[in-house]
Predict the structure of Acetolactate synthase.
Amino acid sequence: MTPTTHPNAWAALADHLRHLGTDVVFGLPGDDMALLGELERSDTTVVLCRDQRNAVFMATGYALAAGRPGVCVIGKGPALTNALTGVLEARSAGAPLILVADGTRLDRLGTGAFQELDQLTAIRPYVKWATRVDHPERLPAALEKAAALAVNGAPGPVYVELAEQVAAEPVTRVAPWRPVRPQRTAPDPDALAATAARIAAAERPLLLVGGGARHRNTGRRIERLAELLGAGLFSTASGRGTVDEDHPLHCGVSGLYTVAPVDALWREADLVIALGSRLEETATFGWPEEMDQLPVIQAVLGEENLAMERPGDHVLGDAGRIVDGWAELLAGHRPAPAWPARVREARAALARRAADRAEEAAKTVTEGAVPVARVLAALDRAVPADRVLVQENGLQDMWSYYFPHWSLGSGGGSVVPSEQTPLGFGAAAAVGVRLAEPAGRPVVAVVGDGAFNLFRGELPTVADSGVAVLYVVLDNGGYGWLQSNLDRVCPDGSRFAFTRPRPTGTEGLAAAHGLGYQRVTDADALPAALADAWRQVAAGTTAVVEVAAALADLPPGMTAAAGDFPERESAQEE
C-alpha cells in the first residue's frame, strides 16, 4: 500500500479506533485536546467524565457487556493514579480495556516536569501489557499489539502511553491496520479426551459457569451440556447472565451466594466442572470441608487462571470450544436419572425457602424502611424481562445476588464487580453497559447509597451523555457493611459510626441536571414509583429511585457481617 501519514499521534489513534469499530470512548483527557479535535469529525460517542476512576469503570462495564474493548483516554501523573483502581477492576474482571494516557516528553524526564511520574512502573502490575511510545514510527505497532493483547488469551487491560513530544509529530503507517478479533483457542485433543473421560465417570456432577464463559454460550450449548450430563447448573457472580436461569437444572449463584437447601448439592456431588472460573474465594466461599477432596475439572482460557488447590484436572482453551468438544465426545452419555431429579428437587425447595425468607425479612424491617425483597419483586414487575442488572456489592444490595430473590430468567443480563468489589463500580459501569447494549434494552443499577454517593459527581456526565439508566439506590444511611462489622466490636452508643440518617442531597443534583428522582420510605408506594421511573427511562432520561433500607434487613442466609465475609445461618434441609 501507499504509506499513510497522519498529522499527529492523536489522529493516528482516532483512525485506529475507527478501524476497530470503536463506537464509544470514555475518559477525561489531559490538557492536549487534539484527540477530541479528531473525534469531533467522527460519529464516535465520547463520554467526558469528571473522574478518571469512573471513566475506567464505565469503559470496563462497556467491555463486559459488549464483549469487545472498552477504550479510555486520560492525562498523566495523578490522572493515572486516579485510574488505577478502575484498571485493577478491569484486570480482575477479565475485561478487554485499552487505556491511553499522556506522558512526560522525553527530554524532560527526570527534571521534575509538570505531573511527571514513572507511569509504566506504576501501572505494570495491573495490566497485561504496558508500553510507552517515545518515537512516532513506533505508534502503529504499539496500538495494534495493544488491541490484540486486550482481546486474546485471557482478556484484560492494556496500557499505551504517548510521550508529549510524539503527540504533535506526524505518524506514518506503511501497511493497513491489522484486523483485530479474538481468536478462539481450541483445546488440546488429549486434554479434552482425558477430561471427558473423567466427566463420563461422574454420577453426581455440578457445572459451574464463570465469567470466562460470557459471550461463549451460543445456541445455549452450556445448558445442552448440563442436560447431557444431568448436571446441576450454578454460576459464579461474574458468570451470571451466561445461562438461562429458568432452566430446571439451574440452582443459583455459587459460593458466597449459595444457601440452603441447594448448598446440600455441593456436599453430595462427586465432580465439579468449572467452566471459565478462576475459583476465586467468593466463588468457593462456604464450600463444604469435604470438598477439599472433591475433584474439580477446570476449563479456562489462560493458564494463569488455573487454581491448583483441589484435586482434579484441567483443559485450556475457549470455553465454547471446550463445551462443544466435550459434547461431541460424550454424545452417547446417559446420566442416571436420580441425580437430575435430585437437582430439580433442590431447585424447587430453594424457591419455597426463598419465599419464606422474604416473608421473614419483611417482618424484621423497621418502620420507614422498605424490605429489599419487596424492592426486587416490584422491580421485576416494573421493568421488561430482558433488562440488564448492574450491581454493587455492599450489604442490602447483595440481596439481588441470591437466586431466586432476583432471577435473570431466560433473557436477562448481569454485570457485577469482580472479587475486588471497588465501591462505586456498578453505579459507573451502568453507563458503559447502557452504551454497549442495544438501544431498547433496559439497564438497571441496584446500588447502595455509599457507592452511589461516590458516583453522584458523575450525574452531570450522565445528563450530558444522554444515557438512560434506572438507578435503584438502597439507602441505609452510609456504609452498612462497615457499620454491621463495627456493631460486633463496639457497644451501643459508640462514638464511631458509618451510617447516619440524613438527607442524601441526590434530589437537588438530579433536578439540576434534568434527571428523574423519587424517594420511597413506604413499601406500598414503591410499585408506582418504580413504574413512573421506568416510564422516564424508557423515554430516554435517567431516573433515580432512592429507597430507605434498614441495617437489620440482612441478605438471605446471613446472620451478621463478619469481616470480609458474613456469618452464615446453619444449614437447613427441606
In short: DSSP finds 20 helices and 22 strands in the chain.
